[in-house]
Every structure is written in structure tokens, then in C-alpha cells.
Specification:
20 helices; 380 residues; 48% helix; four-stranded parallel beta sheet; Glutathione S-transferase Yfyf (Class Pi), Chain A, domain 2; Rossmann fold; 3 domains; Fumarate Reductase Iron-sulfur Protein, Chain B, domain 2; alpha/beta; globular
């Protein structure tokens, strides 16, 4: 355990920036759940692994959203989500195993699970199971949003360019409409989409403590890119994009730089385009900024440019509360995080985002009458 933890521990200068950034601390007011407390405790464990019981260490490993906001602001480069992943690797309980099974068998489990969850009567939506059933049912997104933006014309920027498309597990297995919309956009742009058998980005497994399995996925995805001639890769999930950017399985620093430069947020291909807005456009639109999008969020910038003052609510510091493994380990602690997110989106009758995990969580927790969907669904 000490090896998994110590590689991420650095000296804390008590600046408090992580405390201001942590959505879990902000929503609960409990400093023991904040990044600094986890960092301090993990440093002690790195020096003396017997300081904490197996049960307590496993519990601590479950209490992190994995949003990475603390890592972004830490002047010392402290990686608290990495520390927690180390704890999870050292204490892989049943919930971690369940999460691993869910992610590695997405092709087989996601679609039937989503359909089955939607058939469970409300009577059986207990306090603990209800939110999970709603999230599973929401993965398929129901009928989806009706498109209300049509491109007037497409620029020639990408015409004739050969691209790979990284769709991600959600689009591949339960949200085929996203994949089809992305392909239509690339076709309109005149790009040639190359065949590429990508697997999961692996970020969910890495955060859950399954670094070896995540690394194997990274190696396969990089191999697909190499075999295709190292072209650009269009991506439309913010969390997938962050996971792909974090890969470190390259032959040289130069190849790693080329990989990062090749990753193209799909929304960037539409910057500067003009759209015809149809009469069925929702009156009040909101946008949820995914934690893993970082400060520079191309999806948000695209929507602000395309929709103007129709975008009435945009989250900034708020996390949706999805939390990965924490969604299973401590669902009660994710709820106040989610409530703060919806407070920031108050007034919107349709909420858009560009992260598959965020969309699953928001679809499951949306107030009555509020629709949720990927921004790709708005383009016809």
C-alpha cells in the first residue's frame, strides 16, 4: 500500500486552495472529507501502513468524487485523486469489484441494465436503490432532445482530412444517437472517418484503483492511433478527453506530445459556424460544465457562441455528484453535491453537457419538467 500512496504524496504548504476547490467539502462543510485531510492521512499511511485498520482505509478510499479540482489548483502538484486511487488499489472491496465489472463489461451490461431499470416500478425505488435505478434508466436518455440548431454551412477546415472518432462507451453502447450525430457532423465537415477499434478510455478504472487494467486500455487505444497513421482524434465526451490526455504509454516524449495534440474536441470543429435556430428551441437553456473539462471548456464556449443569451445558467464550481466508485460507496454524500449543481442551474428548462457520466447523473436527478441531453442532440 505504501508504494501506491507514496508515489503521489508531496509536501503540503497549507495554502487552502484545495479546500476552496473541493465540491464535496463545499456541499457538506465537513473538512475531514476535504483533500488536505486525505493528503495528510495518506502521508501518515505511507510512513506507517498499520496506522489505519483495513476497514477504515477502505472507507477512506470511497470518500472522493475524483473530480480533480484540487489537483488543478495545488501549487505543489499534489494529486489527491491519485492518492485515493492508491488506497482503492490496496483495499479493493466489493464495491470496487462491482464498479470494475460494470466498466469492463459495458458492452454486455449497460444496455440491458438501463432498459431493465426503467421497468422497475416506483414502489421499489427505496432510499438507497432509487437513485441508482434512476441513473441506470437515464443512461439511455429516453427519447432524447428534439434538435433545434441547423448549420447554415460548413467550413472547409477539415474537408478531406482523415480522422479517427473516439465515441466512448456510453455512445457506443446506450446512446447511439450521439454517435450518429457526431458522424453526421463530420460528414458535413467533409472529413473522412477512419475505422478504429478503440476500447474504453480507462479513466474510470484508473480512478477506482485498477491501474493495470486502465494501462492496458491506454496501450490498445494508442496502438489503434499508431496503426491509423497517427491522425487527429475527434472526441465528444469531456471525461474521455481528459482520460486520453493523461496517457503515458508512449515511445518518447515527442510521441506523447503528438498524441495530446491529436486530440480534437468535436465542438472545436464548429467554432465560428452559424446556425439556424428553429422555433422549437427551449426558452431557457442551461449548461453543466464537467469537472474533467478543466478551465478551458470548448463545449461551453461553442454553446455560448451559438446560443447567446438563450443560455441562462452555466455551472462553474459545481460538480454533478456522479463520483464514480463513491456513487456506490457513499451515495448519501454525493446528494448535497448534486443539489448545489441543480441550484446553479435553477431556471433552465433544458440542461446540456458534454460528459457522459455527468449526463447520466443529471438525467437521474433532474427536477420535474427539466430535460437533460448531450449538446450533440441539439444539432439537426
Amino acid at each position: 500500500m505504501s508504494e501506491n500512496i507514496s508515489q503521489h504524496v508531496s509536501h503540503c504548504i497549507l495554502c487552502g486552495k484545495c479546500l476552496q476547490a473541493c465540491p464535496l467539502l463545499r456541499a457538506t462543510g465537513r473538512e475531514e472529507l476535504g483533500p488536505r485531510s486525505k493528503s495528510d492521512l495518506c502521508r501518515v499511511l505511507a510512513e506507517d501502513p498499520d496506522k489505519l485498520s483495513e476497514t477504515d482505509a477502505a472507507k477512506l478510499a470511497g470518500l472522493c468524487l475524483g473530480c480533480g479540482r484540487c489537483r488543478e489548483v495545488c501549487p505543489q502538484g499534489q494529486d489527491v485523486p491519485g492518492l485515493v486511487a492508491g488506497l482503492r488499489a490496496a483495499h479493493p472491496g466489493f464495491k470496487s469489484w462491482l464498479w470494475k465489472t460494470w466498466l469492463t463489461r459495458a458492452r454486455m451490461l449497460w444496455s440491458p441494465s438501463s432498459k431493465a431499470a426503467g421497468l422497475v416500478p416506483e414502489l421499489f425505488h427505496t432510499e438507497r436503490l432509487g437513485p441508482m435505478l434512476k441513473m441506470l434508466a437515464g443512461m439511455s436518455g429516453g427519447p432524447g432532445l428534439a434538435p433545434f440548431m441547423t448549420p447554415k454551412s460548413f467550413p472547409d477546415t477539415y474537408r478531406g482530412e482523415k480522422l479517427l472518432l473516439f465515441a466512448g462507451c456510453t455512445a457506443n453502447f446506450v446512446q447511439g444517437r450521439w454517435l450518429m450525430a457526431a458522424l453526421r457532423l463530420l460528414d458535413g465537415l467533409g472529413a473522412e472517418v477512419l475505422p478504429g477499434d478503440f476500447t474504453c478510455c480507462g479513466s474510470g478504472l484508473k480512478g477506482a484503483g485498477f491501474a493495470d487494467r486502465s494501462a492496458a486500455m491506454a496501450e490498445r487505444n494508442v496502438a489503434v492511433w499508431r496503426e491509423a497513421g497517427r491522425p487527429r482524434i475527434a472526441v465528444f465526451c469531456a471525461t474521455c478527453l481528459a482520460g486520453l490526455r493523461a496517457y503515458d504509454c508512449f515511445e518518447s516524449d515527442g510521441e506523447r506530445s503528438r498524441w495530446v495534440d491529436s486530440l480534437l474536441p468535436l465542438s472545436e470543429t464548429m467554432r465560428g459556424m452559424e446556425f439556424v435556430i428553429s422555433d422549437n428551441v427551449p426558452e431557457r437553456l442551461g449548461y453543466h460544465h464537467p469537472c474533467h473539462a478543466g478551465a478551458d471548456d470548448p463545449d461551453r464556449d461553442f454553446l455560448r457562441e451559438a446560443l447567446g443569451d438563450r443560455l441562462v445558467a452555466v455551472t462553474d464550481k459545481q460538480c454533478c455528484g456522479f463520483g464514480g466508485v463513491m456513487r456506490l460507496a457513499a451515495p448519501g454524500l454525493t446528494e448535497p453535491v448534486n443539489r448545489q449543481c441543480w441550484e446553479a442551474l435553477r431556471g433552465a428548462d433544458t440542461v446540456l453537457s458534454g460528459c457522459s457520466a455527468c449526463l447520466a447523473q443529471l438525467s437521474a436527478t433532474a427536477p420535474q419538467g427539466v430535460a437533460v441531453g448531450h449538446w450533440l442532440e441539439t444539432i439537426g
